[in-house]
What does this fold into?
Amino acid sequence: MSRVVDIQDLTITFDTDAGPVRAVRGVSLHVEPGEVLAVVGESGSGKTVTARSILGLLPSTAQTSGAVLLSRPDGSAPHDVTTLSGADLRAVRGRDAAMVFQEPSSVLNPVFPVGWQIAEGLRAHGGLSRAEARERAIDVLRRVGIPDPEHRVDHYPHQFSGGQKQRIVIAQALVLNPSLIIADEPTTALDVTVQAEILDLLRRLPAEFGTAVVLITHNMGVVADLADRVAVMYDGEIVEQASVADLFAAPQHAYTRALLDAVPRVGGLRLRDRSESAEASLARKVVDRDGPAVVEARGLRITYPGRLRTPGFTAVDGVDLRIGPGEVVGLVGESGSGKTTIGRAIGGLTPVSEGSLEVLGIEMNGVRERRFRPVRKRIGFVFQDPATSFNPLLTIAQCIAEPLVVHGVAASPHAARGRVDELLEAVQLPRAFGDRFPHELSGGQRQRASLARALALDPELLIADEPTSALDVSVQARVLDLFARLQSELGFACLFISHDLAVVDLLADRIMVLHRGLVVEEGTGDDVLGAPQHPYTQRLLASLPVPDPVEQAARRTAWEATRA
Amino acid sequence: MTTVIPERAPLYKRLPVVHQLRTSVGLQRTMLVAGLVLTAIFVLTAIFAPLLAPYSWDQLRAGGELFGAQQGPSADHWLGTTVGGFDVLSRVIWGARTALLTIVIGVALSIFLGVAIGLVSGYFGGWLDRVLVVIADAIYAFPSLLLAILAAIVISGGQSSMWGGILATAISITVVFIPQYFRVIRAEAVRIKAEAFVESARVVGSSHTRIMTRHVLRNSTRTLPLIVTLNAGEAVLTLAGLGFLGFGIEPTEAGDWGYDLNKALADVTSGIWWTAIPPGVAIILAVLGVSLVGESLNDLADPRLRTRRRAAATAGVVGTTTAVPGGVLSAGPEGVAGMDDLEGPPDFPLSGPTAEDGERA
It folds into this structure.
């Protein structure tokens, strides 16, 4: 059988308000039957657009040239998807190739049972009775590993967990037995332990279903775990194509090398160690490490009130925490573990329900805003999403000047400009950026400006809530590097919240692993990640795919052993 | 760093309507232009009524001679005269002034009150918010014309002076429109107060007043131009409705399209068309003009409805600009969020953690 899909010299142009934009330029790709091809690249590199063109899923503002030859399961001559429209295109979708999207909760329609949604594809392509369609739906649900499919086929999406929902989405794609599945960031929205399960399922697809997979991802660990062949995209072009072993062993293109270098690894070089040794000559604030704690929590409990007659939800359930002066504490956990809630409580955004939380000498349990306000100038906060953490109508300089103006350090944003320029330089942004608006900066630049704002009043404590999780790997590396450098120069204490073990390992003096509102393990990076004691930490570490195909293969075997 | 800086247009090009006019193409542009032209004619007529109208609104005679009632169109009276002996053209032109005053007063009153209440209600929430929402819903259920009749009686005791008529209409539409502004601003405030930049302002220690004015208010006024134009149309209709029902302005006080329509009712059956059609057409064109502007603004504000110039199939390479797939569709307030990531090519090799062989696990 010939190639499943053959993309020849594909160019895609978008009409935008700012004129035409070329998103994809002359891309040629092909997928063999049963092969897993990973397309990697940063956001905006054109990888999603390329993959969507296989199904003709481009918005009406797109113009395509080149050819996308998609083979048919019956073996007849392949057709060019770019020339199809209307009913012909609908016939192709789902039957010849199907798509798995990133966010399972928003892909499934909440008002229909999952079985109905799986059978929707069968109905669209016709020829099956209700009972047959249901039979097929149950069958495919069983094959993707949903327990008790005869019963659960009638359940609604909200009755499934995130990982199960993604399995259902995969089942939806598989039900028509397409020869190709396009998986667009299939595990990005999932926790690490769930990601491992989904990756396991995706790995079985070629063997058990005979399906080729185009995997779009920015996670090099996932690539190492799953792919046979890798295409690296940069700025709308394919800069390198190689088998997975070759690519990781000997990357050819400079961009690929930079991308691989930028991926943080557990147990890799620590940024703190490097900055302490290499730049010891720099003037830096001396902090008395043994001084009184900046943050001290004892038996901290935070409960979100429930609706009428339903009990509240306990997000944090008795946590003891201490952050000393100048210390970086990494808080790791999956979504729902309560790590963000702890950060918000320290920042005074969420009230404490029980126990004691002392922040810079103020007891936060039942604190009044008036009493806490003077302390706020000693706390900086960096938010997760750089896109929304700036007022879109104010310039960057005005945003950074905001804390200075509010606390009376400067009379107006204009008067604060000198300090703002200093701060911009400290975070390695040109001074001229102060006059730009937030949307004129890239994600990484915005996050650096966010850091500048947090540091405006020279705080003693910085709370960083997933500061790099919305960024691309190479951008993340630069932001983390800057973060480590500033921390060692300015000597602030820091609570670094992240779901990424490797990122936390890079920066933190001490790591706390949070699971369902409880601290399950605490210690230095070497202790916690080198020799984890708690089974949850062990599972977390084993689930983390490493960007090295050889090592990942060994880890996969170990992971399967822990699961059995 | 070779970052592409998006050109920022000069201030006048970024003003609400001008900006939309510049970005529109095709049918949407035609609609917007037609609406703007109609609205401009309406506003200019109202402003320059003394120059345009051949006679005053209450003039019955010129050079000591009566116009006469129900006279057909002639050189002296282009659109004839009414049953009361007034010049139809003059009354239609002066009527534009009454309508414009009603719009300005009604919209100005409701916008200030509605925005202020909506902002406080949405930002603070709690019991105040709940009470205000219930009141707003109750007002929604109230027919605006009935309210206007009530206001007309209360304000002028049935004596229909010019200001009495205008204020009665303005106040009644104020009462009816406040809930609309209230709801829109409240919904935006509720959304925006959960945004990270408001949280960031709270963490910094900004006072509530500062957060409300500097961060929430400025970001919640996006849809206001749209509601203003739609409400302006409704204001004209309410004024005309009042006049038609006999609660309008006396002919000796000001021109009033609704009043003229009411008086023209009997003429229609006797074949006199010139007394009814001109004020009717004036009402239609005024409402159509502002509604067209409003509808086009609505379409242009939504990136999914906005049509764009087609790119030539062989468009040149556009710098190092890259598009985020799907970003253009889910554009944020700035409209072109898809163009956000304009970071240039990183200077190789990227500085960052270099973890060569420290694998240990």
Remarks:
- The longest strand of chain B covers residues 61-62.
